Amino acid sequence: MSALPDVAAWRAAAARFAGLFAALDAGARVGLVARAQPASMLLWEVGAEGVAARVAPFPGFASCGLDMLLSADPESMGRIRDAVGGDLFAALRADIRQGGVVCYMLRRRCDLEARGFEDLLEALGFAFMGACR
Questions:
Q1: Low-confidence ranges of the chain (pLDDT < 70)
Q2: Which of 39, 47, 49, 100 has the most CB atoms at less than 10 Å from its CB?
């Protein structure tokens, strides 16, 4: 069994949470890797037709071409697989808080904001713009 969630379930999760992805620019990419087996990554990639999901090789941080990378330890990955059909973002947020999922921002903050990541980051527990805008 793959450590990563099922691609179809990952795609369906993006569809269920479409509002979080609506503001993202085409080409925005979010990856998920299993910390213990980082050879491949599960991607959400925004295109003209919406959010696609696929498995791709993980060539490393410098050349993965992601905007954001979620790296999950084995216990957190199990919770993510269990939650992918339900409230995935609550599970991700909880595991980010407890340290089982590490979220790497691979673009500068201003670039993420410009690409429309604010709602997605807030859903993951990162409200870095504050209450006053």
A1: 1, 128-133
A2: 100
Question: Burial level of 119, CB count in 10 A (0-12/13-18/19+)?
Answer: middle
pLDDT given at position 133 = 47
* Torsion angle (degrees, nearest 10) of CA 48, 49, 50, 54: -100
Contact 76, 88 (CB under 8 A): no
Helix 88-98 crosses helix 74-83 at what angle (to 10 degrees)?
160
Model-level pTM? 0.92
